[in-house]
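URGENT: need a sanity check before tomorrow's submission.

F., can you look over the DNA-binding response regulator record below? I want to be sure the sequence and structure line up before it goes out.
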Amino acid sequence: MTLRVLLADDYRLFRESVRSLLEQDSLITVVGDAATGREALELARRDRPHVVLMEVMMPEMSGIDATRIIKRELPDVMVLGFSMRQETTYVVEMLKAGASGYLLKKLATPSELGQAIRVAAEGEIYFGQRIPHILVKQYFWRLAEEAAAGAPVLGAKERQLLGLIAAGESCKEISFSLGVSVRTVEARRARIMKKLNLRSVAELIKYALREGLASM
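Structure tokens as predicted:
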């Protein structure tokens, strides 16, 4: 299957350069390019690409806002943050908006870019170099903030269990991994949900992904 990609960046020369690189891949077709966040949204609505490569900061509408609307209206369209911005705030806000990953322009190689597009098109998450480091820092900052505010903080075993749940493992698989009974896994899961005031496993998984626990 040929993957349809939309480029969204306010620098024309950069868009042309990336288009040239991607068109060397026989399994990727660039269906359009946008110079503003609003144009990216309009083209995504019209062309329904598999993946949008989205710059974070653009005229008229930011890439973050455009991503949020795209994911609300077109959940099957995947968005990858692709920016020079490496500040924690931009990375985290793009992920909160629904992006399927984030790459830094200055570090992404042509082969990595193609790989990231393929991973995102499959509905998975892809992080380029330095992004995991940025997210880990954000995670520990949030832990400190929650502790200071008196918010519930999960222990190491609770975070481990939550990471396994978010990774898609069943209670039986988790019980084998942790060396405990299925009933123990279910009881611990229930305690975590009560502590976090969550009502379903789906909400629990969303929490784990938002907090960066899925890969633990």
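My own read: DSSP finds ten helices and six strands in the chain. The beta strands are 3-8, 28-34, 51-54, 78-83, 101-104, 126-127. If you see anything odd, call me.
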